[in-house]
Each structure stands twice: as structure tokens, then as C-alpha cells.
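User: Show me a protein chain along with its predicted structure.
Assistant: Here is one chain, sequence first, then C-alpha cells.
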Amino acid sequence: MGAVDFARVVLAGLIGALSMAFASYLFSAMNIPMVDFGRLIATKILRYHSHRTRLGLVLHLANGVLLALVYAIFLGPLIPGDYWLRGLIYGAGLWLFMMVAVLPAMGDGFFGWKTSRSMIPSALVVHLVYGLVLGFAVHP
């Protein structure tokens, strides 16, 4: 495993998380069911209730940076394949973790069964976008 360029990874995490937020906005504008990740973090974890909260966006960006560091330091080097494929695999893994661990822990059920199963495909797409950004940015 080579040295990690922390500034590059932090920037990749920010760009990846912003890409997710932008893709989520586009899905919502096209009336495609989508999770508001920032609002989910703020309301379900912190119990802070506010529509379109900036706190949620900040927490989503911080989470993007943290998960980018996990990818660059620990998991990315272990995933086989080209850099872009490793990113996609990581993004898919994050999506699956959200569906089987995070959403049930927040009371939304396995794969969001109790709230909205219709957001499953769009949530996968935005996680793949995040992973692809990491794949390209972290492992040039």
C-alpha cells in the first residue's frame, strides 16, 4: 500500500458527497424518489428537525470525507480491479451497508421497507456516483 495523499482524499470525499447531493437534487426534480441524506442524518441521528437543513448537508459532506478516508486507507487497496471498478464496488458496498444496517438501525426497516422502497434504485445510483468519483480521484 502506497502513501495516502490526504488532501486529495479529502477533496475526493467532498466532491463525491457533493455529487451525491447534486444527483439527489436532480432525481427529486424529475420526481424520482430519492433519500435526502443530509436530512436523514440530521433528523434520525441527531434528532434535529428542520426541512432542508444546512446542518444535514454539512454532516453529509463530513461523512463523505470520512468514508473517502476509509476507502483510501483501508478498503480501496484490498478491492481487486481497475481504479474505477474498485470505486464502483466500494459505492455498491456503501449502498448495501446503508440498506441492511443503517436504515434498519434508524427504524426504516431492511432496505427501507417501512418507509419507501421506491428510493432503492436511485440510492444505488448516487452511491455508485460517489464510488466512481473516489475511484478516479484517489487512484489516478
